[in-house]
Amino acid sequence: MSTNRNKKLRAFALVIGMTLLLIVTPLIFGQISSTQTTRPRAATQSIPNGAKLKFKGVVINRDADTFTIRDRNRTDYQVLITDRTSIKTHGGFLRSGKKYPVTDLLRGLIVEVEGRGDAQGQLVAEKIRFDESDMRAAVTSDTRVTPVEENQARMAGQMDELYAVAAEARHEVEAVKEQVSALDDYDVSETVAVNFRVNSAVLSPEAKRQLDEFATRTANSRGFMIEVSGYTDSTGGEAKNFRLSRARADAVVQYLAVNHRIPLRRFITPMGFGKTEAVAENNTAAGRAQNRRVEVKMLLKRGMSRNAKAPATTKP
Q1: pLDDT tens across 229-271, in order?
Q2: Do 125 and 53 contact (CB within 8 A), yes or no?
Q3: Which of 31, 88, 258, 272 holds its CA 20 to 30 A away from the CA of 201?
Q4: Alpha-carbon Rg of the chain, whole angstroms?
C-alpha cells in the first residue's frame, strides 16, 4: 500500500517537474535569443558649448550644413560645417595637405575633426583632415567606378574597428543606384536643364540666364541641397565624354557659387555621366543638342518651407 503511494507521489512530482521545465525553457531561450540579436545602438554625444575637441571617426550621414561622424566607440557626433572650415588631406613632409571642397565629404570617409562645441551641442568644425587613400576609397564606393567587391576586399583586410564601421557606412552607399537617392529625406523642389555647344563646357548667355532664375528660387529656402549632373551626346570617345560631362557640371557649380554666393556645402558632389541617360535620340542634330546638357535640381528637405527664414545665428 505504502509502495503504491510512493509510486504515485514520484509520478506526480515527475509531471510537475516536466511542466515547469516546459514553461521555463522558452523563457530562457527567448532571453538568450533576444540578448544575442540586440545590437548596440550608437549614442549621439552632445558637446559642451565652447569646449574644444579633436577626434577621429567615419562620416555616416551628410546633410546640408552638417554631417554625422561615428568614432571607434560607436558614439555619434553632429558636426557643423561653416565657410571658415578648413578641409584638407593630412600633410606630408612639408605639412601641407591638398585642399578639398566641402562637397567631397562623402559617407564612408574616415576623417579627423577639430573644433569647438556650440549652444546646440554640435561641433563647429575648424579643421577636417583625412588621408588621400581614404578619400579615393570613399569616392570609389560612392560613384561605383570600380566593382563593389574590390572595395569590400580592401575593407576586409583592415583589422581596426574604425575601418569596420566605415565598411558598414559604405555598404549603404553601394546599395544606392543613384547618388541623390542616399538623401532619403529630400524631395526635388526645382529643376532646370542648360545646354552646351559641341565639345564645349562654356556656359552660353541663355544658360546663365536660366541659372540666374534658378538661383533666385533658392534665395529664401532652408535645408536644401543642389544636385548637378553633366551629360554629352553620343559622339566622341567614352573617356572624353566622361571628362567633358564632368567639366560641364563643374562650370555650373562654379557659376552658381561665384555669381550667386551659394555655399559649396549646399552642393552634392557634381557628377559627369558622359553619354548615358540620353533624353533624346542621338541620330539627329536636334536630339544631340538636347543631350549636351547639365541638369540642376534643388532638393528640399521634407518638412521645410521654401520661404522659411533661417534663424539670425545660422549662416546660409
Answers
A1: 999 999 999 899 999 999 999 999 999 999 999 988 889 888 8
A2: no
A3: 88
A4: 28
Beta strand segments in the chain, E = 43-44, 52-62, 66-70, 75-80, 86-89, 110-117, 123-130, 186-195, 224-230, 271-272, 293-301
Domain-located, residue 263: yes
- CATH code assigned at 196: 3.30.1330.60
Q: Are the beta carbons of 51 and 116 closer than 8 angstroms?
A: yes
* 116 grid coordinates: 569647438
In angstroms, the first-to-last Cα distance of the chain is 95
- How many structural domains is the chain composed of? 2
Residues 170 and 248 in one domain: no
Residue 272 belongs to what H/E stretch? strand 271-272
Quick: pLDDT tens for 121-177: 999 999 999 988 877 776 655 554 444 444 555 555 544 555 555 555 555 445 444
Over 70: is that where the pLDDT of 111 sits?
yes
The answer to whether residue 219 is domain-embedded is yes
171 and 62 in a single domain? The answer is yes
User: Do 169 and 52 share a domain, yes or no?
Assistant: yes
d(C-alpha 195, C-alpha 19), whole Å: 78
Q: What is the pLDDT of residue 220?
A: 78
- Same domain for 88 and 131: yes
The x, y and z cell numbers of residue 281, run together, are 535620340
Contact 254, 218 (CB under 8 A): no
User: DSSP state, 89?
Assistant: E
Report the distance separating Cα 203 and Cα 214, nearest Å. Answer: 15
**CA dist., res. 78 & res. 95, Å (int):** 28
